[in-house]
Amino acid sequence: MPRPRRDDWSPVTRAVPPWLAHALRAQRGPVPWSAVARGALGGGPLLLAAVLAGRPTLGVVAAIGAMFAGINDRPGSRRASIGRIGGPALAGAAGLITGTYTGAHVSAVLLTLLLTVLGLLAGAVSALGPVGSSVGTQLLVGAAVGAGMPLPEPGWQRALAFLAGAAWLLLLRLALPTPGSLAGDSRSGFRLGFRSDSRLGSLPGSRLAFRFDGERDAVAGVYDAVAALLDAAGTESALARRAALTAALDHAQDALAGPRLRRYASSSAERRLHAQYAAALPLAEAATALAWAGDPVPARAAEGPRRLATAVRGNTPTGPLPAPSRTVPALRALDDALLRAAEAFDRGDGDDGDLHSRNRSRTAALRTVLGARGREYGMRVALCFGASAALAQALHHTRWYGQHEHWYWLPATAVFLVKPDLGPLASRVLSRAAGTVLGALLFAGFAAVLPRPEGLVALVAVSGALIPVAARHFAAQTAVVTVLVLALVMAGGEPQASVGRIGETLLACAVVLVAGHLPLPGQHGGAAIRARLAEAAGAAQAYLDHVLGDPDDRATRWALRCEAYRTLAEARTAIALASAELPPLARHAHGTDETAATLELLVDTITACAVHLDDTGHLDPHHIQHLNELTARVRARGDAVVRLTPGHDRAVR
User: Fold this and answer.
1) Could you tell me where the DSSP H helices lie in 6-42?
2) What is the pLDDT of residues 175-217, one digit of tens each?
3) Exposure of 520 by Cβ count < 10 A (0-12 exposed, 13-18 middle, 19+ buried)?
4) Taking the mean position of all CA atoms in its chain, how far away is CA 487?
5) Cα–Cα distance between 308 and 310 in angstroms, integer?
6) Contact between 97 and 81 (Cβ < 8 Å)
7) In 3D, which of 588, 562, 565, 563 has the Cα closest to residue 575?
8) How far apart (Å, rounded) are the C-alpha atoms in residues 450 and 304?
9) Distance CA 527, CA 427 (A)
10) HSE of 140 in the Cβ direction (CA atoms, 13 Å)?
């Protein structure tokens, strides 16, 4: 039976429009109790300390910093959380200083122009990825709050308070263990600031352990994903399982490749974990080749990776691993990879392992910021942020409906609405409006019965604890954040502002909904998607050239393979979001999903070629035919250019 191809599948019929289906969909999973505890210990205690010290407004700013840090406190390793929380916090502090001093010394027109330019810069930086998006968001929100929130403190004190709040939650993230993160580390946790010493290590209580928190589970997840892909070989779920393997590899790479305490791995346990991750790469390659072949794999083949996953999670020996049959090149590659993994697991100390971290050069980052993605998103953010700031300034200075002290709410809300990584635009607007109305009504009820200020402090603590749970849906997160922000405003001495919050949110929704669908000057629709496809095509070309030109350099090959699949996954995500927009925007994504599917099949084929070359030293006509067909299909679509390098169709080691 021929292997099913993704671009031959019929789309699933939906009963509701995609943008509405996205708004009704919520993530699932266990409650992140450790993140809940950090949220409860974040902004609430900071606000309480500031109130007791007689500086409640500084406590408000610190609690805002802790709130943003809590929003960015996503599942993952401790080392990854440093950049995910710290980078945006620095940007938010810079925005606070900029907004505070410009808001106090420039006219309304000049302030609006400055905020618009800042929106262009922040939007372009957001094209770098999730952390870049958070950096841009906090920069703009900080600028709006600094310019519009009436606080007695100067800008530098506000920035320090904001950083203190974020640093407090980051400290909690680094200090408090996640349940299950101590598995097996009583023997070999890595130490904070001390060298490993076998003599000291044998004494109870002699080590200050910086426990693994997320790293071990991330590496184990790779082995589980390999086993799942082997189980799915020959079935229609193989493509989805291969995508899950890509996500697991990306997650493990990010979890391990964050900042270290020293330049090199600080203990044998950490070095061994790196080696275990590196040992999973050839297993992933062999499993992908088997899935590409389209033939079922004996259940025995998946048992070895599952035992390796259990050994990683418990930091225990692997025990005997069942050997798969060696009937075809991919099964022989799987058997060899299992043998090498067993050796890596059995080494007492382990080596540092090559993480193949995604270290992009400054030139590549600048190219992304100034390229099609950065320009398109930057102009969209600048338009929405600038228009909402202009409208807020007009309402503020004309006092159209009263004193209007909280004009910063309108542009700050627009920033969250225009973030593309939160879902389709119409879905974001609907969720934001519903969440704000619900949150404002809830706070109005709480404010009527809670004592002050202790009741507001408790409300801030409870809201902070709920943020990790509410993150499963944008509307729920908006409701919780609305309650928290309104509590902070009142704790800072301002009157109850639920009605104003609802009104300005609805205005921001209208502004972003209109501005988000306007054609941009000099921009062709879908330029960002085409740029992502071009990046994916370039990564596939680099992978193909290396496999056919230098097949013996496996470490580089695995790094290029990971990059090819990761860029494809990013393109797939962008295409899925664009396809779920309203028709004026969704039409720009038409046909791009087929291009991405062809590129994915091409990278799968390149992986199968790599495994075959390792085993036989040459490509057979079957592989060459598939490579030629797929590259021709990509060229025919015209969205990206990928070519088979001449002369490599007869590659021999």
Assistant:
1) 18-24, 33-40
2) 876 655 544 444 433 333 333 333 233 333 333 334 566 788 8
3) middle
4) 29
5) 5
6) no
7) 588
8) 58
9) 22
10) 38
